[in-house]
Amino acid sequence: MAQSAPLQLLPLPTSISPSFWHRLTSLKLHHLGLDDKPVPIKGCYSLGKTVPDKLTGDSVGISGALELDEGSFDLDVGHGASAPSPHPDHFVLRGVLRNYNTIEEFKRADKAKLLSDLGDQIWAAVRDSSPETTLADLNPFLMITFADLKKYRYYYWCALPALVQKPGWEIVEGWRDCDEPALEQIDTSVILLRPGGVTASLHAFKTFWAQTPPKERTLVFSDPSSHSNALGWPARNALVFLAHSPTTLDPPVRRLRIISRRESKQLSCVVQLPEVVDVASPARPAVVGWEKNGAGKLGPRMADLAPLMDPTRLADQALDLNLQLMRWRILPSLDLDKVKNTRCLLLGAGTLGCYVARTLMAWGVRKITLVDSSTVSFSNPVRQPLFEFEDSLEGGKPKAAAAAAALKRIYPGVDATGVSLSVPMPGHPIPPSSLESVRADVIKLDQLFEEHDVVYLLMDSRESRWLPTVMGAAKEKLVINVALGFDTFLAMRHGLPPSSDAPILAPSPGSPFRGKLGCYYCNDVVAPQDSLTDRTLDQMCTVTRPGIAAIASATAVELMVSVLQH
Q1: 541 labelled catalytic
Q2: Which fold has domain 5-164+287-308?
Q3: What are the residue ranges of helices labelled H in 297-423?
Q4: Per residue in 78-115, pLDDT tens?
């Protein structure tokens, strides 16, 4: 008889798809926040296989890996992570993920205790010998992570714990090819076999093998290993289960034929323990299982997704990141989707319009339409942050279109549109030759009001705000008005009549403000008049401290966000 050799078991590596990290990012931002409690996940492994080398024709083994992707977080109701894999010859394992909030916490995590706790869980499954015990119950895995969401770097370390059998199983009849026709349709990770092609689940070994001689007891393992002389890692705890589970089976499991079922063939060997295991002993064997890194040492790995990501998507996620952080601790009830989906119409693309547009983008607003009838002058770029010197050359570009183009350059994900349009003003007579163009402008303005939720009044003169104010009240839109003095400013929302039930505007029925919120003109004795004709230059232009415009614009946007939350 040939000398026995130890049974070799090949560690199961992890293979993590970028989609897994994208899903973790979304989970962290939108749901977990600062919560670092374990999250149940699942992974699956496939059968080992052998393929021919295209250059040499030699056979090359490809072992299966524990695969994790975006579906790893989808746990079916009623099955948890033990739901069957949708792919044939893929087998599901359950696990937990612990995502730490800082890299320091990740480094300080007690890896030995984490592994030991999982070892206790496996040992409890071995000793309890539940009739529902499966290979997945005996092979829970652990993943600890830290997600650097600003740089899209993910630090992680995986463990697939295994109990150390001492003394270990030894091969007494070496590996050889085999062919068991009864196994062709097997779709489980491990089964028991006895003569006649009769099969049973792993947990039933005490009764299934009760009348079976030791030499005819067979364990069939769906094997991720492609090595000709080694089994895959998940078999390790299955063998511990058979050897240590309390049983009255006589004789106990000390000798086994193992069939390694792989993608293109079956291998078999016979193993045995050199001595009978004392199943009455409650002592848990030692546990191993932390995965080695790329350098072949025990330690974490790092996945850097930034080079793989589309820059536009990076900008999207970076914008959402800064906003979502407010919900983690300071304001959990903040409804960012409501802000993001609000369609904003900015009447005026000058100093106020530029600052309001930038602040709206910072809040994640995706739909911004700017309306203006003028062009960029040489005095504009230093005060109006969406314009550059080149925009003022050759007579100047249309302000609305130039501002919209600048918004898209800053953030490609914004839906920004510029519309050149003149707003009719009281006190400014319309010459007969301009009636048709003014009528077209009013029709276009009416259409823009219908297509937007919030309207900002950001024009140069007081009377230019009259028509939009009336239209906003008639169409029950949220109107935000911003006006500047030398060292003062006004930022106000317009109210609606008591009968209004517009959900975006109307205070609750019991509110003391219902029906009492006025507009820019409510205290006027007479209608707005021409404030531009027969005025000196300092009376026609807005003379204000340069910093006031940014303050007023930011206040107006914050006012809108507050109204939307209520």
Answers
A1: yes
A2: Cytidine Deaminase; domain 2 (3.40.140)
A3: 311-328, 336-340, 351-362, 399-410
A4: 343 344 555 667 899 999 999 999 999 999 999 999 99
